[in-house]
Amino acid sequence: MTIKMIAVDMDGTFLNSKKEYDREKFDYLYQKMKQQNVRFVVASGNQYYQLKSFFPTIADELSFVSENGAYVISEGNEIFCGELQPDSVKDVLTILSEVEGAHTILCGKNSAYVSEQEPDEFVAYGSKYYHRLKRVPNLFDIKEDRLFKFALSFPSEKVKGVLKQLNEVLGDKVTPVSSGHEDVDLIIPGIHKAHGLMQLQQLWDIKNHEIAAFGDSGNDLEMLKHVGHGFAMSNAQPEIKVAANEIILSNDESGVLVKIEELLSK
């Protein structure tokens, strides 16, 4: 088995329930990856500026498939940036304004945005995942950014129903996917984590069967199906376990690091 790229989701996968990871173990494995010319890729629905904060000393060496593939950065250089059509943004915002209990973050290349009408608790919650988060008077008025994703929050018992409703109403304007923290992302159709990995594969001439990927949620589905070696956490959603080649230890048992060490030893 030759592995040339390792791609990891963050929430519920690489990070434990306390939003941490075994840094000493990872540093050791990262050096082994470099020695074996294995690329380490962070593939997450979260914002690039938040993701790089988890790797303060090596962020400029790493590659990030952030915002579910809408914004891909490698070694500090932009590789890909998606964009929602302005009419689609307007239509989605109009529909969301009629969904009871919905909280919305509109995500762009320069920042994420939240309405001034949103409660402070939601803004504080959003700040965990979006280190650049601006309060604005009206989401409809954002013009000076390249917008590529909606991040939505609902009461957990409503997520399944809301996903169904959004699929029915929004059609092909955006694709709803569940993210790692029981929320819903609306992404550009065809722009997902697997698409982000493809951009890096072209850059490095890496084949699908030379990639190992790790995930736990709906936004990891395309990625796990795309790669030759897909691993689902034992805490993963049922459809992710079905899509994976193997189910490994949970995120609270450092399942990703245990499996990476095994892969590198082979």
Outline the structure in words.
The protein has 266 residues and is of the alpha/beta class. It has two domains: 5-81 and 191-265, Rossmann fold; 86-187, Hypothetical Protein, Haloacid Dehalogenase-like Hydrolase, Chain: A, domain 2 (2-Layer Sandwich), CATH 3.30.1240. It has helices spanning 10-14, 23-35, 48-51, 86-96, 120-129, 159-170, 193-204, 221-226, 238-243, 255-265, and strands at residues 5-8, 39-43, 63-66, 71-74, 77-81, 103-108, 112-115, 133-136, 147-153, 175-178, 184-187, 211-215, 229-233, 246-248. It has an eight-stranded mixed sheet, with helices on both faces. The chain has a six-stranded mixed sheet with strand order 8-7-6-9-11-10, sandwiched between helices. Strand 4 (71-74) and strand 5 (77-81) form a beta hairpin. Helix 2 (23-35) runs parallel beside helix 10. The longest helix is centred in the first third of the chain and has 13 residues, at 23-35. The protein is globular, with a radius of gyration of 18 Å. The protein starts with a strand and ends with a helix.
